[in-house]
């Protein structure tokens, strides 16, 4: 299996606290991998290291063989990383469409082409009816979808989703899971996602990586991982297996 | 922009073109002043309104632009058509130096604003000691025959200056309107709204912020060249003073930061009302020093209280010049 995203021995400490400690995993081409673990396990830090938000202390990240380590976030995006933020960061005074046009300009040669691409993406995430209102007026679930739309519009090779389903109702979760599955199947876009909503993790992920205190404690198929005693003890709790 | 707005703009343009035929010299000088502030405000708006980089030192570019062109003219006899290029080049270099220092070393927000003030201030002090430009005593252009037009040296009657600044203001409006719809406009607004997210979408924020500074400083330099040849006298104490920077930015703030017509509307409101109140007070015989500044302060407070986004966005909606935002 050829890996698209390779994370090797990645470590990052903040003032001595090891947020991410020697973590290694891969995301295969066209694959969907979930990153789970309790709060403070280092999931978002992992994302920030991959996307060039900050530099890793040790270890490296490769995308399709290209070394991403040392790149700024704009360079990582150009290389093919599309990310969303856990705490959403819309451009509030711009319209929904304009928000996505900014993302689409990453690959589009002209503003007109970017507008076309943006409208396609907006349809995909069901935001096309809100295209001309300012992002400031969106509800939180809509803002999360806007994050996804903006990242998708950059035409990434891999999409990094940071808790885009938190706060959604179960039917909304199913809806957005369906969107990701469609995108994955139709375009072959690989997805790495951080999620607490186990319903989404089980439905979407082909492989699950579990972090705890910055270290990887388990990795494997979703069904196997949720039965792993270490994972149950540190994260899911006993009732998860019964439920 | 809808049809109504287009027609309004056309009527305004024609009215401004015909103005010198009807206006007396006082009215023409007020109109020239308004257009000067509209132009300089538009320039500042590129940096702050579009890209979110607060400059409180735009007097630096007005001053350097003015002094370069005037110095070349007075000492070397080089006309402003050549001088303006050097003025622009020098101001862009200065702007990029400030931008480089700030953006490379992560100085942003109010600290960036302080840096821009610092540059304007030490340039003022520098010019106070520069003998070539007359030091604190000032630099003067010979006031030529005002009824003959000498395009090459940009000397002529008030109407010529009026048309020149009208062309500049209109050109700036066209340029900014185009910029806002281009890739740069989208990138600048994204940087203004959330720089971290903008960068994660593949925008080299350093490069695009530098472009905003370069365009803004170049435009302001041209305003400076105009200033020198219109007023014919330059003093470091006046032209580089922070109050000059504030004067430039009040228009866009009152009119609407980040909007195309905000700087123009703001310049009209401030100039007309400030001159109006001076006239009015003179007519009733009240002479209070600083009354104009008090008035500025009150207007600024009112706008911030009642129209935090400036006058233009609300006015445009009321007049039906823009389509109302659907489905909130």
In short:
The complex is a heterodimer of chains A (243) and B (328). Chain A has helices at 43-50, 73-79, 96-104, 111-124, 140-153, 170-187, 198-204, 222-225, 229-236, 238-242, and strands spanning 3-14, 17-28, 32-36, 58-63, 66-67, 81-83, 158-162, 190-194, 207-212, 215-220. The two termini of chain A are 33 Å apart.
Please state the overall shape of chain B, judged from the principal axes of the Cα atoms.
Answer: globular
Number of helices of chain A: 10
Rg measurement of chain B, Å: 20 Å
Question: Numbering strands along the chain, what is their spatial order in the largest sheet of chain A?
Answer: 6-7-8-3-9-10
Number of strands of chain B: 2
What is the H/E string of chain A? EEEHEEHEHHHEHEHEEHHH
* Portion in helices of chain B: over 70%
| Stretches with pLDDT under 50, minimum 5 residues of chain B | none
The CATH topology of chain A? Rossmann fold
> Nearest-angstrom radius of gyration of chain A?
18 Å
Question: How would you sum up this structure, described in words?
Answer:
- The radius of gyration of chain A is 18 Å and the shape is globular.
- Chain A is an alpha/beta fold and 243 residues long.
- Chain A has ten helices and ten strands.
- Chain A has a single domain, classed as 3-Layer(aba) Sandwich (Rossmann fold), CATH 3.40.50.300.
- The mean pLDDT of chain A is 91.
- Helix content of chain B is 73%, strand content 1%.
- Chain B has helices at 3-22, 25-50, 59-76, 80-104, 110-128, 158-181, 183-193, 195-200, 205-231, 236-239, 242-255, 262-284, 291-306, 311-318, and strands spanning 139-140, 233-234.
- In chain B, strands 1-2 form a two-stranded antiparallel sheet.
- In chain B, helix 3 runs parallel beside helix 5 and helix 4 runs antiparallel to helix 9.
């Amino acid at each position: 299996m050829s890996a698209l995203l390779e994370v090797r021995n990645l470590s990052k400490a903040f003032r001595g606290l090891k947020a991410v400690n020697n973590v290694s995993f891969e995301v295969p081409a066209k694959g969907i991998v979930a990153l789970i673990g309790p709060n403070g396990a280092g999931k978002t830090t992992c994302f920030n290291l991959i996307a060039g938000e900050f530099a890793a202390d040790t270890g490296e990240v490769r995308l399709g063989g290209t070394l991403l380590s040392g790149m700024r976030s704009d360079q990582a995006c150009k290389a093919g990383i599309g990310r969303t933020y856990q705490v959403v960061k819309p451009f509030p005074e711009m319209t929904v469409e304009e928000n996505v046009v900014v993302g689409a300009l990453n690959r589009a040669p002209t503003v007109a082409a970017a507008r076309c691409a943006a409208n396609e993406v907006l349809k995909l995430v069901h935001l096309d009816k809100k295209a001309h209102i300012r992002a400031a007026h969106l509800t939180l679930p809509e803002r999360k979808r806007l994050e996804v739309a903006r990242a998708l519009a950059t035409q990434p090779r891999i999409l990094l989703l940071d808790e885009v389903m938190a706060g959604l109702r179960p039917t909304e979760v199913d809806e957005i899971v369906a969107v990701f599955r469609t995108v994955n199947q139709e375009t072959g876009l690989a997805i790495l996602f951080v999620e607490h909503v186990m319903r989404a993790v089980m439905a979407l992920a082909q492989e699950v990586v579990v972090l705890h205190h910055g270290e990887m404690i388990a990795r494997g198929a979703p069904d196997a991982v949720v039965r792993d005693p270490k994972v149950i003890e540190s994260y899911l709790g006993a009732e998860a297996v019964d439920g | 922009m809808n049809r109504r707005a287009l027609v309004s703009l056309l009527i305004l343009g024609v009215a401004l073109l015909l103005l010198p035929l009807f206006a007396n010299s006082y009215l023409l000088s007020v109109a020239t002043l308004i257009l000067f502030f509209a132009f300089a405000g538009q320039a500042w708006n590129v940096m702050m309104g579009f890209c979110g980089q607060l400059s409180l030192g735009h007097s630096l570019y007005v001053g350097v632009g003015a002094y370069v062109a005037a110095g070349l003219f007075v000492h070397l006899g080089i006309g402003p058509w050549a001088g303006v290029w050097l003025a622009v080049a020098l101001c862009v270099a200065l702007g990029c130096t400030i931008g480089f220092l700030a953006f490379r070393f992560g100085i942003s927000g109010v600290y960036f604003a302080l840096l821009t003030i610092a540059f304007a201030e030490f340039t003022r002090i520098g010019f106070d000691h520069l003998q070539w430009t007359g030091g604190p005593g000032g630099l003067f252009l010979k006031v030529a025959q005002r009824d003959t037009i000498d395009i090459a040296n940009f000397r002529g009657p008030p109407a010529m200056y009026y048309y020149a600044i009208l062309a500049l203001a209109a050109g700036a409006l066209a340029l900014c309107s185009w910029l806002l719809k281009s890739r740069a406009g989208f990138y600048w607004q994204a940087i203004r709204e959330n720089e971290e997210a903008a960068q994660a979408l593949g925008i080299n924020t350093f490069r695009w912020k530098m472009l905003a500074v370069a365009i803004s400083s170049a435009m302001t330099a041209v305003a400076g060249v105009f200033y020198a040849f219109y007023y014919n006298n330059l003093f470091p104490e006046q032209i580089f003073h922070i109050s000059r920077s504030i004067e430039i930015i009040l228009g866009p703030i009152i009119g609407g930061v980040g909007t195309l017509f905000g700087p123009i509307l703001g310049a009209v409101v401030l100039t007309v009302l400030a001159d109006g109140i001076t006239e009015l007070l003179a007519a009733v015989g009240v002479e209070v020093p600083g009354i104009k500044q008090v008035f500025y302060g009150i207007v600024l407070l009112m706008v911030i209280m009642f129209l935090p986004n400036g006058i233009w966005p609300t006015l445009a909606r009321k007049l039906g010049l823009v389509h109302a935002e659907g489905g909130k």
